From TrEMBL:
Key words, A-Z: Ribonucleoprotein, Ribosomal protein
Keyword Acyltransferase: no
Source organism superkingdom: Bacteria
PROSITE patterns: RIBOSOMAL_L29 (PS00579)
Gene: rpmC
NCBIfam families: L29 (TIGR00012)
Name of protein: Large ribosomal subunit protein uL29
Homology family: Belongs to the universal ribosomal protein uL29 family.
UniProt-listed InterPro entries: Ribosomal_uL29 (IPR001854), Ribosomal_uL29_CS (IPR018254), Ribosomal_uL29_sf (IPR036049)
Organism expressing this protein natively: Flavobacterium flavipallidum
Gene3D superfamilies to which the protein is assigned, alphabetical: 1.10.287.310
Length: 63
């Protein structure tokens, strides 16, 4: 998810997307531990998306 897309979301949508992304990340890590996944770069991109969502939530809380 791009930063421009994240800025357009409400706080509730950000929180929901963050929880879904964290769940997907945990599932992907588990699948990769059991047997290597086809594209391991998915893990990196999902982790970065989680960081973007968390950063935007924190930024909004501080304002």
């Amino acid at each position: 998810m791009k930063q421009s897309e994240i800025k357009g979301l409400s706080a509730a949508q950000l929180q929901e997307n963050l929880s879904q992304a964290k769940k997907a990340y945990a599932n992907l890590k588990l699948a990769h531990a059991i047997s290597p996944i086809e594209n391991p770069l998915q893990i990196r991109s999902l982790r970065r998306s989680i960081a973007r969502l968390a950063t935007e939530l924190t930024k909004r809380d501080l304002q």
